[in-house]
Amino acid sequence: MAFQLSPGARNGTLQSLETTIGANPILTIATGATPTECASANTGNIVATMVLPTDWLSAPAGGVIQLSGSWQDLSADASGTAGYFRIHQNDGTVCHMQGTISASGAGGDMQLDNTNIAIGQQITITTFTITAGGA
What we know:
eight-stranded mixed sheet
């Protein structure tokens, strides 16, 4: 049997992500396959780096939390096809979260307006949602 959490426990778990990672985390977008775990080295090439807003996640509701504010890179660092993302604390030293990337509507953990990135291109994150277990 799968365990279940109360709505308050699910929302508290999700809120702890923003508290743990901190304000203004750094989001990197890279080509290639997602590394085995956050502690593993990057794979592929970094095509974009952006500083997320101070309050980068919405208030959790119903066991779901989403991006808050504008997540954009006004000028991509390199060209390539986006494959995965990583979210680091604001000094860039610790990767706390990673996942897949797809175009909008294609089901990746994070979705972009365009996954085929050209150097200097503006990149906009269109969807980023985390659902707590048992929700």
